[in-house]
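U., I forgot to send this yesterday:
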Amino acid sequence: DEFEEGVAGVLLPNRQAPIVLSPDESFNQTFEEVMVRLDALIGLDAIKSQVLDHAKYIQFLQLRKEKGFREKEEINVHSVFIGNPGTGKTTVAKMMGLLYKKMGLLSKGHVHEVDRVDLVGEYIGQTAPKVKEAIEKARGGVLFIDEAYALARSNDDSKDFGREVIEILVKEMSNGPGDLAVIVAGYPKEMKHFLDSNPGLKSRFKLYFEFADYLPQELSQIADFACREKGVVLTDKAKMKIDEIIINAYRKRDRSFGNARFVYDLIEKSKVNLGLRIMSEEDPKSLEKEKLSLIRLGDVEKIDVEAKPELPNIPVDEPLLKESLDQLYRLIGMENIKAQISELVRLVRFYRETNRDVLNSFFLHTVFIGNPGTGKTTVARILTQIYKALGVLERGHMVETDRQGLVAGHVGQTAIKTAERIDEAMGGVLFIDEAYSLTMRSNTGGDFGDEAIQTLLKRMEDHRGRFFVFVAGYPDNMEAFLKANPGLNSRFDKILKFEDYSPRELNRIALQMLSEENVVPTPEAEEHIKEYLAFLYEYRDKYFGNARTVRNIVNEAIKNHNLRLAALSPEERAHTPANLLAIEDVKSFKTDKSSFVFNKQSIGFRRPATD
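Result:
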């Protein structure tokens, strides 16, 4: 039942569109014309075969009805297209629309292409009208939803209006007036999440078409076709260079590789360079006509061949952004961190509003420096949600790991293990806690941590903008970590420094934690906790636990509170406030240096008290 990469198309009819008895009068001829056009497309052999089988089955059902059979089933015209950018999904969708029209399943056969931006409103009440308008524009043809997975961003994002779009689509495909084919397109794993996001969604789609990346020889043919379309001719050397660029890009490709779009872009840039060369001549008007279309080797060599990621145009999610920033601002202390992140949000907004390339302008990889318990992981999670809301992360999840999750015990295994964690984080954030441990050599003399760093650096460059890396650790150790490899320091644009909480902030954190447990301290207990935290702060070292220490104190106080209540008789307990933390619950917290050593029953040692 799972939908993964490599799944072949399943052609099962479903109750989606009524079987029509009267296809176009010129059905046989026009059907052949459509199939000839489909067959003329470069590559896509598996897709062509699936479409042909689907069309034949439709013909079979129509023939049965002509012979008097009564069919309970209805023909499924809704499809899932999975594949990378530029693999022909939109082109095949247009062919399907035309095919359905010629077979009498659709009245018009046109394609209305939309994405999340076209369907989701910014505020409550705006989404439904946009979706219904898109459906009516597509009525009689195909509603093609590109990057449909963006409508189902995450399982816990109940406020996202994309879910409303899905509900309306399910209702339309189930009980709508028909004369509509819905095709949803996107990456395999994301589309599985999309189909699982609504119980009724997966059952509406029975046709799955997997669009593989074009092979280098097919991309070369596409380049020839693009040249004919653009009215240019490649010299033999220019053609060889184009093919070389295609092969290199194909070998380095990831799922953002543009395929046919990448090739068309190559030819377009070559044509631009041709034009610039021609117009730099003394008298370009006197040149022969053939020279105005002849692309030379030099025109191709000037191209910046770095294939930039083609990321989905996800709009700013205002509700999620507000919610994430509210979470940030509610955190105690961290005023410098809040200011830096607010500045970053304004900058990314400005880049997006002015159509600048955010992901290729700066890395957004971030270093989190601070002692234990200063909120590094909490802020990392919030910052991930902020990037998701701003549309610079495709999925917006955070994968948390450390040295153990990246480093293996044998040569060659670390690169594989690190690559697996990176793949999990693709479209989101890879958070590496205690990252400095990657530069510390093990007792066995192995340097597998360096292998993890080399793998990480390469993927950060090769997949720039596809995922972000957050590294966290103590100040001294992280400085050594960044200096351990020349490539590390240059990869991280931002450094967020988390200061130790002040005594006042520690006390606020303690009161907040008690409130979350529905426990209220008496004035005497509150004052004692305050004095104890100030004492710990005064004598703190680099291992001071900050909020973690506060959590331990609160847990200990609540345990003492519960033990005190447990010692009371039921009658006494009935007259004792159950949520009131008394001074006797916290008097074990001593403001003397002897409290720094282990002082638990049967565990550790007690150091003699000093003056």
